[in-house]
Amino acid sequence: MDGYGIPYEVLLVPQGGIALPQLNQTNGDGNYGLFLVISQVSYNFGDQWRSALTQDQWNAMYDYQTVYGVRMIHINAYPSSQFGTEALGGCCSAGDDQIVTVDKNIAAEQFPTAGLNFGTWSAVSNYLNHVWINWGLFGLFAGYRRVLFNSQIDDLFLPSAIYGTDGGTFRLRPSDVTEHLSWQADLNTRLVSGGNAGSNYFIEFAFNGNGNFIYTQTIGVGKTCANPIGFVRGEEVTPLEYQKILGTGTDMWPPNSTFTWTLACMKKDPLVLQFMDKTYRDAFGLMSHTFTHLGENPITYDDAYREITFNQNFAKLATFTSAAKWSGKGLVPPAITGLHNGDALRAWSTAGLTSCVGDNTRPPLISPFNLYWPFITNMSSNGFDGFNVIPRFATRIYFNCDTANCTLQEWIDTSAGKGDIFDLLNLERESTAKNLLALRQDPYMFHQANLRWYDVDQLTINGNTKRYSLLEMWVESVLDEFVQYVNWPIITKKHDDMTTAFMNRMARDQCQYNISWNTAADQKSIIGFNVGCQTGNKCNVPIPVTIPIGNSITNVGSFKTEQIGNDPLTLWVTLTGAIKTFTLTTPIKLTAAGGAGLKISSSSKASSTTKPTSTSASNKPNSSGASSGAATTTTTSMMATIAASAPATSMTMRTNTLVTSTSPATTSSPLDPATVDSSSAGAGPSSVDSVSQISAPSVTDAAVSDSGDDAVTANVQASTSDVSPANKHRRRRDKQIHIRHRGRRHSKF
């Protein structure tokens, strides 16, 4: 939900119980478009496990479903007749897997717009979230789906000292760059032809201009260029999160330094000359990595300003500022330093920069509010207010390695790695697929040495034997994993555009946007929706609304629509002070499970201005959700998450923020309805009574196994012990998608 940007409300239910929030408004409008129930809100009461919700509360939600046609989804539910399943008491030894088969033809019929590739090679765990979100919310929701995949290459033009060598270095060569230009184009062709239509991947380079002049002095013909910048003293080593006292420090740069290098001098370097060629320049993203790569934790304002402005002068002379994918407002800080140095941050801002990348291995550089937001610097922790830090993932491809053997050895030596390069890549493909399926848009960190290709040994990746750079083998591996799950477009945005996406996400979340469904008079279909927000229906950035595939809007007007490849249509709504109302071309049925295909809707809680067309006081649901007659015509499409909670707390409402609602193992376990005390907890209605009463059990721990071409099999660990499978799964060391590559089939990509 956070990945899509779907607003939701969380109700934490303590063991002693809690009142339900008001399910509908006084005018009859409903407040919720979906109920998501975690672990049946169950606790161990000593004599038995039972729900902390009362029978009357369950009935209130069931009645609300009947009236408004919304769905309820259970996650980590105990197998029972309520869900069309039965617990057999175990099948095998501890640690063995139980098999659940999902017919891929049925999956394709029930979830047609999810873009999921069901097959024998598909992992199920994280991936199934997209199924229940889309099924439960009818394909119509505030928020949107977009996979951004950016590999940023630091240190362009600098040489890198190579791990495990006695002073050995490597600097990228034109032949390596030529290979990556061809590979990048071929990769996009394969992605599109393989089914991921709309894909557009490119490499982004972060350059250090001083490397050009180091080359011309040490290697270049004639050595006639001015000397590169050299420091007046050695670099100061500081702790990672060192915070410099503002105004302190001593300049490292020579006094009165000026940019005096000429274009003729720059062109003596064949690598720089290649990147000045429009064919190469416009094919890749380009951005600054500072001029010399001087660490910025302890440096002065003047040195930090020189590092930025000298690289800007270099970029202008090299025509990088005219590149199709030039990012002039962003920075990759050297070794991600300077983010607690207010003098450096002020210098970056003065030089026209607005953002930089961070490091997701360092919690102080991650937004404390939402993983999908940038971190915004502040005076207290960073010495400067308002600089935007975009989260960035590290990988096991190390900055100082140029071959597979090198990065493997460094992994073994520094991170207790075990196995060969394929074991390393399998870890990368699993963790990266999890990030992409979670719609994390953070870029990935690489370095220029990782692009060595011309003289490396051949490897077999995804069944193809040839030479691969470290970057190529990583990208080929992780995308081969990802495209086996989904047919979504894989898109790269240059740094400045990626920053805009992060900033817009935060801005619209802070508007607390929402949509509400408008239903037909007979309450059997959604005929349209309203878009608003809690900031006076004004928002500085457009609000995305996802429209089910195959559907459209009759009154789009001047609003922008967007559809890339197999992604659903997105309507971008600008709010300037009034709620906007839209009509669907095809109504969405609410009367049959799956009858309307895969559809979504959700938003933050807000009052709707649409009034019911035929509702009297006698047939409105009461404040607890019960009803004796017809429903109203509008349902606010908020999603409600109901979860067990160890402490006795009040209801927590958190819309548009990251909400953690898992329970400790001591208070959460599968609930066997057969042991429920009917005086305090209710069993759900029959799954065939109506669509609004159909609940979908979830897979808490899944692994791929072989079972034939027409089914995907998920190994589900069901348990009757006091420790739920969900909590076992949570404690796994890597906290990654649990995938067994047994009999793996390589994708069409």
UniProtKB/TrEMBL annotation:
Residues 2-117 form the Agd3 CBM87 domain. InterPro entries: Agd3_C (IPR056825), Agd3_CE (IPR056826), CBM87_Agd3 (IPR056827), Yeast_SRP1/TIP1_CWP (IPR050788). Residues 676-697, 715-724 have a biased composition (Polar residues). Transmembrane segments: none annotated. Residues 522-588 form the Agd3 C-terminal domain. Pfam families: Agd3_C (PF25117), Agd3_CE (PF25115), CBM87_Agd3 (PF25116). Residues 601-632, 660-675, 698-714 have a biased composition (Low complexity). Residues 149-516 form the Agd3 deacetylase domain. Residues 599-632, 660-749 are annotated as: Disordered. Residues 727-749 have a biased composition (Basic residues). This is Extracellular serine-rich protein. It comes from Orbilia oligospora.
